[in-house]
Amino acid sequence: MDFSITGAKIYYTIPGINFPITQTIVNAWIAMIVIVAVCIWLTRDLQVHARTKRQIVAEMLVNAANDLIKSNMGEGWSGYVPFIAAILSMSVVSSFMGLTGAYSPTNDLNTFLAWALIVFVLITYYKIKTNGIGKYLKSYTEPIFVMAPMNVVSEIATPVSMALRHFANIVSGYVISLLLYAALGAVSKLLLFWLPGALSSIPVLQVGIPAVLNVYFTCFSGLVQPYIFCMLTMQFVAQAAEAD
């Protein structure tokens, strides 16, 4: 059985600047619209004391996000609740889009590289804010000047490794599902070779099993990997703010 793994399709290229509008961009906007719509629905007609299940769920989500920030970054970092919640919700919704047959933005490495770039900017900002630009630049020459190139690579490698880890874990589940699907088709032919005509080509083992595995990988990666990415983001940013 032949199968292939392709990247996001290009729907349109903006003339002049040659900027491609891909499946990743379109579906990312769809995911953002879904998230905004859910937030508006959950927070509609809020009361001082929760009287609806919608408001109870909304308050639970907000409290969970606040507790996550407080336990990993400490007091005084409540301003990062929207940022971390946005990454978590965007990654989860994007990953779960794959269950509908749509192209998931989390299948594109560019998505994670964009998030990693934001994290890199935040880490650099807090290091400069805490120690000053002079001490920040000097840190690249420690312990000795010849280590400067390695220190630069190490600084860049932190967010890049975060992006690659997130991307690789999500895509690996998709690849494993495809490989199993192809293998089950081949095993089906071996088991039914004795049947006459087209009956020997019925891929009986491809019914159900790959779908269950795909749901497992999507749910597992779609929930665990965003959490790990956000945990690392919070730790790196908090450490940068405390750097001496």
Name some characteristics of this structure:
244 residues, 68% helix
Mind explaining what this structure looks like?
The chain has 244 residues and is mostly helical. The protein has one domain (10-242). It is built from 6 helices and 2 strands, in the order ββαααααα. The chain has a two-stranded antiparallel ribbon with strand order 1-2. Helix 3 (81-96) packs antiparallel against helix 6, helix 4 runs antiparallel to helix 5 and helix 4 packs parallel to helix 6.
Report a brief summary of the structure.
The chain is mostly helical and 244 residues long. It has helices at residues 23-42, 53-73, 81-96, 109-138, 148-191, 209-242; strands at residues 10-14, 19-22. The chain contains 6 helices and 2 strands, in the order ββαααααα.
Annotate the secondary structure layout.
Blueprint: E1 10-14, E2 19-22, H1 23-42, H2 53-73, H3 81-96, H4 109-138, H5 148-191, H6 209-242
Antiparallel strand pairs: 1-2
Helix pairs in contact: 1-3, 2-3, 3-6, 4-5, 4-6, 5-6
